[in-house]
Amino acid sequence: MTHLSIRPALTAAAALGLALSWSAGAQTGDPAPAEATVDAAALYNTGAAVIENSREVELAAGAQTLDWPLSGRLRPETFWLSAPGVSLTGLSAARPDDEGSGRLAARVGRSVTLLRGAGDAAGDSREGRLVGVQGEAVLVQVDGRIERLTDGSPWRIAWPADTGSDPGGVQLDVEAEAAGTRALTATYQIDGPRWQASHTGRFDAETGELSLTTMAVIDNGGGARLSADRAWLVAGEVSRAGNGGPQPVMMARSEAKADAASGPQSTGDTYRYALDGGIDVPAGATRAVAIMAPHTFEASRRYHLENSLYSVTRETERSHAAVRLRFDNTAEVPLPAGPLRVYDGQHAAGLMGEATIGDTPTGAPVNLTLGAAFDITAERRLVDDSRAEGGQRSRTVEITLHNAGDAAATVDVVERLPDTAEIESASETRVDDGPANSAQWALDVPAGGDKRLRYTATWTE
């Protein structure tokens, strides 16, 4: 049911529209709902939702106007009509009613339910008819009398919002070469529905294994039921003009499943995950869909310290090492972008941390920063800073690592350097494949012990 509260700071029409998700009425005497199921739908993780639907239409020869039912809030500039011997010359669509005032006006004269409290107990609901809006109040006919409801009233209005589509549709101006029945196919985008991948894993430090499951969370904020016989979730970067990216969504119970057996299909620049049996998500609902089989990766936990040569001072600075988890995507399918949360396999109810990954092809590395290590700290200070003729600079930095834990740890130390800098000397052997314009060391720090690194870098300003 669509529930309604009136706030005196708003006009009644605007207030009544705050929590509405439209659907065609399902009560006796209400108009029949518009088409609720379309042929195909594709949801992109960049926020686009593409609908495709075909209909047999009887057309006259020449110019004419026909009604086309919609599923969701149309973006009129995206509409495409495909038909042999028929061309689209224009269209007319109602402006999306995000506040719901138009939906309220359309409900006048139709049945509503009045609810009080939870609306479950006897006497907590009454049937009525919405007869009008009066300033900041609404007028409802109940039991042969008119009642005026305001924000102070104990009753609120509700009506069905779990089936159907926006009955307004769109009017198409078309030109047909000849009269007869034609198969028309419309492709368009709607606002609201979107999806995001959600990865959940469990890491066992003893075995070095990360077990990972991947779900797609579908959020239908499009104001109408999202129902299609065929459906895909699409991962990848697709540019959109004048539209924002997807918003974070919460996890929900699984109501559908992806075709995990066939895996995602590459379209050249994106990947499409087919949903087995299509898609059916009521307006305002959220569904979670498994889009790939669980997979176990070989992973390693490392500790990471990264600083710039320019940022060091003669005052001792103490910091905690970052906790990082690294693995290669050895699964035979790409990992779509989304949040990834990792639980600790060696401790009950233990969370190692959460991070976000980008779209990751097969074989590509994944590096997650999951938090800060409590027991692994570092003290860093400037030992020497000198200048010479010709713009020559030299700095000596000392870093002392402390491990207060009961197990040895390897710490990756990265020092970002000026473009022309070279390491003149270092007390520990560097790692050869460090990041560009930097120096990197992998230092083993014993349990309850320390490790000291001193290096000197020179460069020309």
UniProtKB/TrEMBL annotation:
Ranges of residues in domain DUF4139: 184-457
Source organism, top-level taxon: Bacteria
InterPro entries for the chain: DUF4139
Span of the signal peptide: 1-26
UniProt keyword annotations, A-Z: Signal
Protein name, per record: DUF4139 domain-containing protein
Record lineage: Bacteria, Pseudomonadati, Pseudomonadota, Gammaproteobacteria, Salinisphaerales
